[in-house]
Write a structure and sequence with these properties.
alpha+beta, 2 domains, 6-stranded antiparallel beta sheet, two-stranded antiparallel ribbon, binds adenosine monophosphate, binds magnesium ion
Length: about 475
């Protein structure tokens, strides 16, 4: 039974072999002060927002039933294998929600752990607000993601290039089991650890897999399917994750780790925001290929479980991995059809979509606003829509639309539900964070409100749809 505040923790992760985590109490805040609290999410978790004090949300006091641990994991960072672990995050426990979900509740920025290496374990207010805004926007866009419950100032100084105010983010997710967690288990070369983790992941995320002949093959298959669907969703809204290291890829298929991520303004598959991604490994157009690479690393870890004989295991893994491309393309094209209001399928739809993307790239078109204007032109259309090449494409699209049995209204509704009219535009996010750093939370509040209903096409959106000045390149930073 839960407590009066609604805490209803279980701590099943702590039943894994103890090499998977290190117990670690959070650092005490000096003068905790809540900056933003997601009351709606608190409600979904079964928590009484009134009981969520700054002490609890900063990790200064522990909620009843919490068992704080830093999770151990490894990962390929920009292609290089490293042993890692939560260096500034802690898992408090798994909240059992009123709707019967099991949700990890964790702190980020809560101090050093056994895995902090040279880091201070802390986080600054700006990046934690950024994670809050963007993760909640992703949720509102309908994309599986970790969510943000609160950001709380700690009163600690965080030393970066300048001295910044320290803050703790409380985040939730289906679980933080990562591809990197499997890599960690595999690197220790003890099959019982790997098996314990795989059985845990199956029980927690893919319980039906336990029923089939080869549960581990089924686990691999399901993770590949979820990731293909997730990455397609990213590509359909122009989300650039920015740091798709294997430790930042979940087994549950949720987006995690909002570091250097950002949304496209101008459509260009070569877009990179992260300052450290100098070779463009994680550029927008590379995300499906990188996901596939990461899943190959996942499959490798599972080889000892897939079959007794190594050749058979490799064949099983290869057969599953080979499905990723087709699954991704299918999800992506279905999503693109919806963005263009196409409710049935024709064989040259892909060429219709690709032609539009090509024109968008040539015109340096804003990704979100192009689809927004195709959906609803009451607020005007981009100038490049006057180009002869676009007009020609438009006629082709209109002919295609008229060939379906769906009504225009049904088609338009599908477009509205598939094309957000607002996204967290980088300059808007920065502006809101800058005000928050001066103690004014109004812009963050307004931004969150608008981003919570991205498909409503409300009049309130207008002020949030203008792209930033394309002459000013946007840069994001890791580990800030
Ligand atoms: P990320 O790039 O955010 O996925 O982080 C990579 C690794 O660096 C993870 O193990 C983090 O926990 C760790 N890390 C990032 N920032 C800090 C910090 N300020 N103190 C300690 N560890 C950190
Ligand atoms: Mg990470």
């Amino acid at each position: 039974m839960g407590t009066q505040a609604g805490w209803n923790f279980e701590n099943t992760y702590c039943r894994l072999p103890d090499i998977f985590f290190a117990e670690q109490p959070p650092e005490q805040a000096v003068s905790p002060e809540i900056v933003v609290l997601n009351e709606r999410l608190a409600g979904e978790l079964g928590l009484d927002p009134g009981a969520l004090t700054a002490e609890i949300l900063s990790g200064t006091e522990l909620p009843e039933g919490a068992s704080p641990i830093a999770q151990a994991y490894a990962g390929h960072q920009f292609g290089h294998f490293t042993m890692l672990g939560d260096g500034r995050a802690l898992l408090l426990g798994e909240q059992m929600t009123p709707s019967g979900m099991r949700v990890d509740i964790g702190l980020k920025g809560s101090g050093r752990t056994a895995f902090s290496r040279g880091g201070d374990g802390r986080a600054a207010l700006g990046p934690m607000l950024r994670e809050y805004i963007i993760s909640e926007a992703m949720h509102a866009l309908g994309i599986p993601t970790s969510r943000s419950l609160s950001v709380t100032l700690t009163g600690h100084d965080v030393i970066r290039e300048t001295v910044l105010p320290g803050a703790v983010l409380v985040r939730t997710t289906g679980s933080y089991v990562r591809v990197g967690t499997f890599q960690y288990a595999a690197a220790l070369q003890k099959e019982e650890n790997l098996k314990a983790l795989a059985d845990y992941a199956i029980e927690r995320h893919y319980p039906q897999a336990a029923e089939v002949d080869n549960p581990y093959e089924q686990l691999l298959q399901r993770v590949i399917e979820r990731q293909a669907a997730l990455i397609a969703k990213w590509q359909l809204v122009g989300f650039v994750h920015g740091v798709m290291n294997t430790d930042n890829m979940t087994i549950s298929g949720e987006t995690i780790d909002y570091g250097p991520c950002a949304f496209l303004d101008t459509y260009d598959p070569a877009t990179v925001f992260s300052s450290i991604d100098v070779n463009g490994r994680y550029k927008f157009g590379n995300q499906p290929g990188i996901a596939s690479w990461n899943l190959a690393r996942f499959a490798e870890t599972l080889l000892p479980l897939l079959a007794e004989d190594k050749e058979t295991a490799i064949r099983i893994a290869e057969d599953q991995l080979a499905r990723f491309g087709g699954l991704f393309e299918h999800e992506w094209l279905s999503g693109m059809r919806a963005k263009l209001g196409l409710l049935d399928e024709q064989s040259d739809d892909e060429s219709l979509v690709k032609e539009l993307l090509l024109l968008m790239k040539e015109a340096k078109a804003d990704f979100t606003n192009t689809f927004r204007s195709l959906t609803d032109d009451r607020t005007g259309v981009p100038e490049w829509f006057q180009n002869e090449t676009f007009q020609k494409w438009r006629r082709r699209w209109e002919t295609r639309r008229s060939q379906q049995s769906a009504t225009d209204e049904a088609s338009r509704l599908v477009m509205q539900r598939s094309n957000p009219s607002v996204i967290p535009r980088n300059h808007r996010v920065e502006e809101a964070i800058a005000a928050a750093e001066e103690g004014d939370m109004e812009l963050v509040r307004l931004l969150n409100e608008v981003l919570a209903a991205p498909y409503s096409y409300s009049d309130k959106h207008r002020a949030y749809t203008a792209p930033a000045d394309p002459e000013v390149p946007y840069r994001t930073y890791c580990g800030t």
